[in-house]
Amino acid sequence: MYKEPEVPLNITRLSPAEAQQFLISSEKEVLFILHTIEHKQSRAALFFNDGKNFLLTTLLAVNEQGLWLGTSGVEAENQAALASQDVIFVSSHYQVRVQFNAERLEAGRHRDQDALFIPLPKALLRMQRRDYFRLPTSTQPPLQCVIASPDPASILSDQPITIMDISVGGVALVCEEHNIDLLPGNVYQNCQIELPDIGTLNAAIKVKNTFEAVNSDGSMQKRAGCEFQKLDGASEIMLQRYISLMQLQGMK
Questions:
Q1: Beta strand residue intervals within 176-243, DSSP E
Q2: Which of 61, 66, 148, 181 could form an S-S bond across to 119 if both were Cys, CB 3.0 to 4.6 Å?
Q3: Buried-exposed string 6-29: b where 16+ CB fall within 10 A, e elsewhere
Q4: Model-level pTM greater than 0.70?
Q5: Spans of the chain, pLDDT less than 50
Q6: In CATH, which of 2.40.300.10, 2.40.10.220, 3.50.50.60, 2.40.50.140 is domain 135-250?
Q7: Would you tell me how many other CB atoms lie within 10 Å of the CB of residue 248?
Q8: Which pLDDT score, from 0 to 100, does residue 237 have?
């Protein structure tokens, strides 16, 4: 059975500007992330006393009201956390660290057992790594990116371009002679990528570079390295789900 590498459980200190890059404030997205943590039984920790102490826990249940967490086997840890004014929840979602400051921590009950309760956070941080994992795509059938031509009257409008690899950061495209001429520095809006079993991603991409590569048969092929522009939280989660699904299928 495939098991994802564990993400270290520690607090990440960010400036307000840095935190804004990773902020998820949609209640629907917050619930989706926390439900996934619950379903996967991902490791979690509660830090308190200005981060100097922590207890390991498990997310037992979550709904619109809040989170129910497992208690520590050491009662003194539970009491110290409950008495603290600054509690930080840390876990992971598809190998990406998730963190938020708890509004408050209370003693609760879940399925007739003692539990810890935190009101649903209004926002959380999902701190995607900057060095994104790039997933080589399948050729049967190929994953494709539909880029509309800047000229609506062009016969090349809405022609799909094959994707060679994809990550949360961007895509590498295979440039055929009949495709739109992708130029470094150009930004293409409303590009669409159909992710099988996940949904359709709509995003702007910026061409960072173009280069020639040698195929296995010795022929040359032009490729374009492209970067997603201001990808929102929902789209990033969609991509991460697709990449994780493909990794899992490849290891079966």
A1: 187-195, 199-214, 220-229
A2: 66
A3: ebebeeeeeeeeeeeebebeeeeb
A4: no
A5: 1-3, 130, 156, 251-252
A6: 2.40.10.220
A7: 12
A8: 86
pLDDT of residue 55: 94
Closest by alpha carbon to 126, among 4, 241, 210?
Answer: 241
Domain with CATH 2.40.10.220 in the chain: 135-250
Q: What is the pLDDT of residues 106-121, one digit of tens each?
A: 999 999 999 999 999 9
Domain 16-127 CATH class label: mainly beta
| Residue keyed to tokens 């520095």 | 185
Q: Where on the phi/psi map is residue 51: left (φ > 0), alpha (ψ -120 to 50), or beta?
A: left
Please state whether the peptide bond connecting residue 141 to the residue before it is cis, i.e. omega within 30 degrees of 0: yes
Query: Boundaries of CATH 2.30.110.10 in the chain?
Result: 16-127
Which residues, 6 or more positions from 81, have their beta carbon under 8 angstroms from its beta carbon?
46, 48, 53, 55, 72, 87, 105, 116
Q: 């307000």: which residue's tokens? A: 16
